[in-house]
Structures are given as structure tokens and as C-alpha cells.
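From the shared-data thread, chain only:
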Amino acid sequence: MRADAQRNHQRLLKEARSAFAEHGTDTSLEDVARRAGVGIGTLYRHFPNRHALMSAVFEDAVRDLLDRSRELLDAPQPCAALVTWLRALVTHASEYRGLARALMSVSRDDSTPLGRCSRPMREAGAALLGRAQAAGAVRAGVSIEDLLQLTNAIALAAEESPDDPDLADRLLTLTLRGLKAHPAGPADG
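Structure, as C-alpha cells:
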């Protein structure tokens, strides 16, 4: 990339990050371009659509979450490692208004940049979940796709209830209790 194109790219990312944090991921792309001091055509040359821009903005956070998942693969308690990582996901999805909803919409769609960005997250989460299941701490029928949808739903619920800062943690705790493996009892048939 030429030096001026690289500068435009970096300014667009910086302004998109700021606009997404202030106004949510559905903020006007024209506003992002204006804030970066470029035309909308320049924005689209760098990022062909909103999901491509979102994916680029969240790339650093995704890299951090992937690094964290690799660290947690060696944790002595597989279930605690999974919980720690899921909490980090909820925090990440809560950082930008609208991100949780966008992630939910592309959870199984690898045709978009944001969807492709979530593939490594599914793989990282699947490794942690598999370890927790192998240890007998999480039921065998739980899938990483369902867990990621639940974490995004929790982040979305927290986003919609800003007056309840503990909501995400309560909902995640409630969800995790339902995931635990337990001996079959009379109600389980």
C-alpha cells in the first residue's frame, strides 16, 4: 500500500473504532469517512462493506482473545478456563454498541469478513469446550456455536440494560450452571 493509502487506512480504522464506541456499529459510514478526512469512496476502497470495516476494527481484540484461549488450554481446571474465556468474550462484545447483534447475525456465515473473523474464535472456543467436556465438567451435547450465540445474547442483553452493570455476569453464571454435567436423575428420564 502506498504511504498515503496506508495513512488513510489507519485513520479510517481509528475513526471507525471511535465512532463504533461512541455511537455503535450501525453508525453512518459517511460519518466515519468524514471524521477520517476522506471521501466515502476512499472508505469503500479500503473496506468494501460495514462488516469488512468492523472486522478490521475488531482484529486486535480478536487476536487478544485467541492468545488468551491458547494460554487457557494449559489451565489446570478446564471448566474454569472455559468460563474465563467466555467472560472475556462477553466483555469484548459489550465494548461496542451493536457488536453483539452483528456477531450473532454472522455466527454461521463465513462469506462475510466479520463471519470469517469469527471462525478462529469458534475454533479456539471449541478447543476449550472440548477440554471441559473431556474432563466431565460440561455436558457432551453442548456446542461452541450455541455457547457463542449465548455469550453474544448476554452481551446484547447487558447493552440494552445499561443501568444494571451486573446483568451480564448474572446471566453468564446462570447459563454456565445449565452447562454443567451432572448424573442423570429421575427428571432426566
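Residues 185-189 have pLDDT under 50 and may be disordered.
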